[in-house]
Amino acid sequence: xxxxxxxxxxxxxxxxxxxxxxxxxxxxxxxxxxxxxxxxxxxxxxxxxxxxxxxxxxxxxxxxxxxxxxxxxxxxxxxxxxxxxxxxxxxxxxxxxxxxxxxxxxxxxxxxxxxxxxxxxxxxxxxxxxxxxxxxxxxxxxxxxxxxxxxxxxxxxxxxxxxxxxxxxxxxxxxxxxxxxxxxxxxxxxxxxxxxxxxxxxxxxxxxxxxxxxxxxxxxxxxxxxxxxxxxxxxxxxxxxxxxxxxxxxxxxxxxxxxxxxxxxxxxxxxxxxxxxxxxxxxxxxxxxxxxxxxxxxxxxxxxxxxxxxxxxxxxxxxxxxxxxxxxxxxxxxxxxxxxxxxxxxxxxxxxxxxxxxxxxxxxxxxxxxxxxxxxxxxxxxxxxxxxxxxxxxxxxxxxxxxxxxxxxxxxxxxxxxxxxxxxxxxxxxxxxxxxxxxxxxxxxxxxxxxxxxxxxxxxxxxxxx
Length: 466
Ligand code: UDX
Hints:
Blueprint: E1 2-6, H1 10-21, E2 25-29, H2 33-40, H3 51-61, E3 64-67, H4 70-76, E4 79-82, H5 98-107, E5 115-119, H6 127-138, E6 145-149, H7 159-164, E7 169-172, H8 176-185, H9 187-191, E8 196-199, H10 201-232, H11 236-244, H12 265-278, H13 287-309, E9 318-322, H14 337-347, E10 351-355, H15 360-366, E11 371-372, H16 376-380, E12 385-388, H17 393-396, H18 400-406, E13 411-414, H19 421-426, E14 430-432, H20 444-460, H21 462-465
Parallel strand pairs: 1-2, 1-4, 2-3, 4-5, 5-6, 7-8, 9-10, 9-12, 10-11, 12-13, 13-14
Helix pairs in contact: 1-3, 10-12, 10-13, 13-14
This protein binds uridine-5'-diphosphate-xylopyranose.
């Protein structure tokens, strides 16, 4: 089939290449000529594992091309996928839909053959209906243009796999023709048995908002438990394992730490709240405000912990931050918790050096005040505190003995609860993490004995038998 994919960011570029991979004839469209030139030559404008291979294969097959010309796109596509960004509107929590609107405004007047416009971006519920009215106004008389919504659930770092082998495909359509067209687009996935849910556009749009709201809630839930653990000396990692064994709860997305960031979850829960308020059901999702607040608080709790560990004043203290991206296996620093902590430590006077395997360049571009170490050991040289804030596997494989030799003080905050704490402690490091107790001064045997003793006393006491 002839497809266009409009917007070639993390979502669109991967979607375009993967659609070519499964046999479609794809035209990728973007307003940024530099990005288009890079993609056309097989140079990914961002870091995403496996993407360069699939892009190169698609270009070599002749089934993928790129352009900046929306008129060329209008003439090419039987199906047009809208994959542009829907960032947070400045000064508001709502989504900024200007890029989606601009695509429709640019495309619709040039559509002459029957076609299907399919939104993939995360949008407020009701967007398909609004855009359908806009298309009806702008398209030439007689043009048969249908609209559908087909939310994308890919995760950065797994984008290629998530696109080729998704957990599920959800389409929101208003008629049989659109349903049939989308089934043809995704025929290989359907044949592979991927769950395929067909619904109306409102539900499809809401599915995406609800999925991201649920994931964000799960993370903030475990981070709230981490705060309670800190107040009691309990261990949030064990707690997560223990509740995660309940299949109704599940262990995924229960990793306590610095919380969620990136270009999706934070802005999507805010946009969802704003839309619910417009619809008069603000109170129903008011808890998402708390989800957001708990999430932001993990950043300030981490900065406060760093301050406490360094004696209350960060001025002039040498601090190394490991990780700048919002998650590993991505170079994306949008709303990155790690970067936010680095910036705040710097603002409070610390001499901060940042290291990230892929995101250092984007981090410094966004925050020129930060310095990056050329390599990991250089970044840690002379540090009085190391903060591990994005869980790249390269940090998990670090030799804590070797690192202890280059720092000034072997003091670590593991903001992602992902390093082997015992090994680090054995190498002489003092390790702190949110929601994790300091190791007991006595061996587990002694602690166990004491617990048994306490239980005996309790059972023997008159109050217990009353
Ligand atoms: C998310 C959704 O997962 C995806 O379905 C949607 O399409 C886009 O938004 P992504 O932003 O790529 O994907 O990242 P994700 O893997 O969901 O992680 C989001 C953030 O949550 C990261 O900052 C991550 O570090 C954090 N996180 C994740 C936790 O803090 N704890 C966890 O247990 C899991």
